[in-house]
Please model this.
Amino acid sequence: MMSLHPCCRRLLTVCLLVPLLLAEALAEPIVPGTGQKLTQVGDDFEDESWEYRFNPPKSSRDIDSQERSPTGESANGRWYESVKRGHPDIVRRVETPAGGLPGSRGSLLLQSLQTGIPGRPSQQLGQDDLIADVHYRLGGAIPVSRGPNVVVRVFLPPVRQWEQRTGPHFGFRVALETFLVPSQRGMASAGGRPALETYWPGMFIEFESKAAGGEHDYARLRLRADRNGNDYPSAQITTTGWWTMGLSVTPDGMVHYFAKPGVEELTASDRLASEFPYGRRAVTFKTFFFNVCNGDDGRTWSTPWVIDDPAVYLVR
Model:
């Protein structure tokens, strides 16, 4: 076996260690709200004429393959309906609930009754999506080398106003892209070039309802997802009112999850977890969006969620 000169061995060791050290450095979590705020996207809901145009009936492609055009969108062009699941039944500017961001007068109410096929209650868990227009307004997705991160304030109403159902009630998520080879995409052949594929990590507010048979009322955050694609429980929600939530992506493709009660800026101590969801490394950030869930029984409204000042930042 050929042996290397000691100097060559030392050089090889350095060459192997440098990428590992760089990767470790890049994995330092980015606190959401860090960097330059992108004014072209996001919203503060301060315009009293803020309006959402519904264009019913809404889409339900995930259930019956129906995309019902024209789809809904906000008058300011910053939000649009998901053609996969449709938008919440209520998307309305409201006065900011007490304790919100200083100076904020307007926020956005999201609530749904029919989360499945319009007019056909399924009696099963359903969800609607409201999507922020990011990659279209910016002219393309954001490379993760720029450290994209997003932060939002979410108002959790008193427990008596929650839909009395055990399960997920609200989601805050991002759309990321990664390169997958054909075998990773479920195709038999391992040949061919890697292709971009979208995935959607984030966090959910989950509720265990005493009225629905739980031992007591209990809420927590559930994160999506670990390396194997499994959702898992995270911080317990011990208080209602305003919460600050954030998601960031570092240049190594890792996703970082942050949350805390109140409206103050997030800090490093508010990090819940850092993951490569589904074992994937993100290469681009496309957008962020919100899920509103209910039991889709045709009678019971979802929990009324209020969001304020969602914003995207770039570190570089």
Notes: Helices lie at 6-26, 61-64, 135-138. The two ends are 47 Å apart (CA to CA). The chain has one domain: 32-314.
